[in-house]
């Protein structure tokens, strides 16, 4: 896929739009569900979760061995990329589905509502592992003020629950290597590695 570029004005036209969840099809197991905070404007423009030239999600997943093929976070996913993820049992969702320039534009109520909707999705789809990317948003959405990154003491039904670092370029203290280490842990827990 060709690398994309958008002006600020073009990106603003995608504000408040949503990106549908990426889930395996009927009869395909959901082994690992990654959950972002909400779509950014680039994500909404490309209709690809975790898309932005500075986002380290896909490079970290590739380095961790969770992905077997590179996905360019600036270009967006091809139909083949989506099918590869589904075939491996990898899904992607968000706590809030409204696109914003920054996650800080979301209110606490919106995150809590999204948390309730996520719990319903997990109950319906029954992933082996849920990995929420972002400790602060997780604490707010689920009222777990003292939660720490890593595997959470209680899962959701049969699903293991993890909190992993957010791959946004705004989360500057994380590197592709540190993200890959965290994502490899959830990949192993889901039986992908």
Automatic annotation (TrEMBL):
Keywords from the named record: DNA damage, DNA repair, Hydrolase
Alphabetical list of Pfam families matching this protein: UDG
This protein's record includes keyword Hydrolase: yes
Domain of life: Bacteria
Record-level GO BP terms: base-excision repair, AP site formation
The protein, known as: Mismatch-specific DNA-glycosylase
Entry-linked SMART domains: UDG, UreE_C
Annotated Uracil-DNA glycosylase-like domain residues: 23-184
One example GO MF annotation: uracil DNA N-glycosylase activity
Lineage per the UniProt record: Bacteria, Bacillati, Actinomycetota, Actinomycetes, Propionibacteriales
């Amino acid at each position: 896929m060709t690398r994309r570029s958008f002006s600020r004005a073009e990106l603003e036209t995608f504000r408040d739009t949503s990106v549908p969840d990426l889930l395996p099809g009927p009869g395909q197991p959901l082994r690992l569900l990654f959950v972002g905070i909400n779509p950014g404007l680039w994500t909404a423009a490309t209709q690809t979760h975790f898309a932005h030239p500075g986002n380290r999600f896909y490079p970290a997943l590739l380095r961790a061995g969770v992905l077997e093929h590179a996905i360019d976070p600036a270009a967006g996913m091809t139909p083949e990329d989506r099918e590869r993820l589904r075939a491996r049992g990898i899904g992607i969702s968000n706590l809030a589905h409204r696109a914003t320039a920054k996650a800080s534009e979301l209110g606490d109520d919106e995150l809590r509502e999204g948390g309730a909707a996520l719990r319903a999705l997990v109950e319906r789809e029954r992933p082996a592992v849920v990995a929420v990317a972002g400790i602060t948003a997780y604490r707010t959405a689920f009222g777990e003020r003292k939660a720490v990154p890593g595997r959470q003491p209680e899962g959701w039904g049969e699903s293991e629950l993890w909190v992993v670092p957010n791959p946004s370029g705004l989360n500057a203290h994380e590197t592709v290597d540190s993200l890959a280490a965290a994502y490899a842990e959830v990949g192993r827990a889901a039986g992908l590695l």
